[in-house]
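quick one, 342 residues, struct below
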Amino acid sequence: MASFDVFEGSAFNMISLTSAINHTEHAPSRLRSSGLFRPRGVNTTKIAIEEKHGSLSLIQTSERGTPPSESANKRRNIKDFRTVHLSRNARLVADEVAGIRAFGSQSELESVMAVYKEREEEKIMEMDLTIERLMLGAISGKILDADDTVIYNLFDEFRVNSPANISFAFSGITQANADNGVINKVCLDIKRQLKKALHGMPTGGMRIKALCGDNFFDALVHNAETMQPYKNWQAAEVLKDRNLAYSTFRYGGITFENYEGTDDGKVAIGTDECRIYVEGVPGLFDIYFAPADTMNFVNTKGLPMYSLPYRDPRDKFWEAEIQSNPLPICTRPKSLPKGVKA
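---
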């Protein structure tokens, strides 16, 4: 029968558990798995982002040998942000450990670790879901807490106006005017708008994405202008043996994707809207990770997740705190328009 002595081994120490948790296959999540947010470990809980104002200007010709003209000084602002702190406990009580029987080739350590992993995986899924929601907030311009409190309004932080909603007039498209390319024109305008909003960032590899709510996506693919292109797209996806549930559709140079949110709507896109953003632009989206709040990790570069063990002095329980200290950021929130179904 297993006992609490098993927790004295190296497999349950802070370094081993933290290393293991960062190599675990995390629960599927659209934005987490997309690679959109570049992970950046920092050694403090505070992040400073420098913003440079200024625009390119034409240079007036001058006579050779004359002094060069002066350019206007660029104004710089420093934006301070703090990472958020997320934590959950995975606990094993004494009776659970004592009741584990080692059998066959399975050792006591393996048996206890298997039970602990079950508890840990549940907490990791909760952590993944929470970080997914933070990322969803970052591509929407408002990063929200679990109770919908605004953690950061990126438009306010960067002192820019929220871009006006972009109307997709699906209801006005008929067979008679389908060839006018109403939706295609909207997509072209979006590309121009985003190019300007990125304000000098390298856009050679930019790709425009739109995560869509259910009603928006259905209206997008079931109107006279896009219905036949969508059927052709579907046929190609079937040939690739891809699952068409919550599928994507590329039209007008934008990849639209029906976002699969949670049933309670806490992690979701509004059903009649889409969130538009740009991939492939270095420095546009980052997620910062601060170190755990323990002396062991102070001034070290932050990891995506930590597992911090604790043994009750009375031997009534053993637990590990699953912790993450993330902050996803979009550095050009003017590039985050919302599309609405009209």
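Residues 4-52+78-341 form a domain with the phage-related protein like fold fold (CATH 3.90.1690).
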